[in-house]
Amino acid sequence: QVQLVESGGGLVQPGGSLRLSCEASGFNFERSYMYWYRQAPGKERELIARINSDSSDSYVADSVKGRFTVSRDNFKNVMYLQMNGLQPDDTAMYYCNVLRARVDYWGPGTRVTVSS
Prior knowledge:
Blueprint: E1 3-7, E2 10-12, E3 18-25, E4 34-39, E5 46-51, E6 58-60, E7 68-73, E8 78-83, E9 92-100, E10 103-106, E11 110-114
Parallel strand pairs: 2-11
Antiparallel strand pairs: 1-3, 3-8, 4-5, 4-9, 5-6, 7-8, 9-10, 9-11
């Protein structure tokens, strides 16, 4: 079955960096678009990044453009989110996502807290 597991979150000071990972299994990862979402306390879940199957095309939301980069390793079945210049507004649970046969699959999430 489809499994997604995020890791790499934690507590970081403003201006710091983190790299999140999403380990995927149970589906054809190398043929799948993959997504990163985040949900801040009291807010709706928002799409922040997307990457296509062969990394030839990617998208990041305006709110993180220039600071976050999405990438993937199809040999390892892992997607990454490099986050630089973190700010308190980036505090959220971060989730990876894949859509398979019209079903959305989510990992349990990894928490990122940006605070001094």
